[in-house]
Structures are given as C-alpha cells and as structure tokens.
Amino acid sequence: MKILIIRVIAGMLLIGIFAFKVANYEPTKATANTELIQGMYLFIKSKPVMEYDYVGTCKTVTFGSKASEAINCMIKKVKKDFPDANGIIFTDDDLWKADAIKLK
To answer: What is the CA radius of gyration of the chain?
Structure first.
C-alpha cells in the first residue's frame, strides 16, 4: 500500500512539473511596434499580435496625394463613427478602407 501511495504522489509531482511551461516570446523579422497617432494604433498591411475586437469598417475618399492626408482623414472618420475604437487596420492598398478595432 505504501508503494502505491508513493507512486501516486510521484506521478502527481511529475505532472505538476511538466504542466507549467515558461513562455518565451521571440521577436521575428516581422515583429514591429506600431505608431500611436491621435490616440489610434495604426496597422497598415499588418495585424496586431495582441487580441482585439472588431468594431466596424470605415470607407472614406480623399483627394490628396499624400498618405498622411488619407490616414488623418480615416482617423477622424473612425473616431466619429466608432468612438470606442483605439486601433485601425488598413485593409486596402489605397488607404480608403479600414477596420476599426478595440485592442484588449
């Protein structure tokens, strides 16, 4: 009976040792930090690593030739349409369509 109890305790200890794993996050060549512009995290042709909730999609038309003008226009539209959003994922090459997100 003693041997059975010792085996059960040893088995539980081994399970406890292997159950906990230390997570090592290794940045890769694709890892980056995003800019915080006007209170919004911008992701252009990329996705956040952290979990997020989809809030909605915005479309806008800009007549300027600079990318910064299109980005600023989209930030204003997202803030107006989705005030609880704190990030934008640009889904189009022309920066006229984006998903508003809420990072957790």
So the answer is: 23
CB 42 within 8 Å of CB 35: yes
CB 67 within 8 A of CB 45: no
CA distances from 65 to 33, 40, 56, 62, 90 (A): 26, 22, 26, 8, 17
Q: Which DSSP letter does residue 88 get? A: E
Report residue 101 as tokens: 């997100």
Q: What six digits make up the tokens of 81?
A: 């349409």
Encoded tokens for 16:
């406890």
The pLDDT tens digits of the residues spanning 31-83 come to 888 889 999 999 988 888 889 999 999 988 877 778 888 889 999 999 999 99
User: Tell me, what DSSP letter sits at residue 38?
Assistant: T
pTM of the full predicted structure? 0.70
Q: Looking at 1-104, which runs of residues are DSSP E strands?
A: 36-37, 40-44, 52-59, 87-90, 97-103
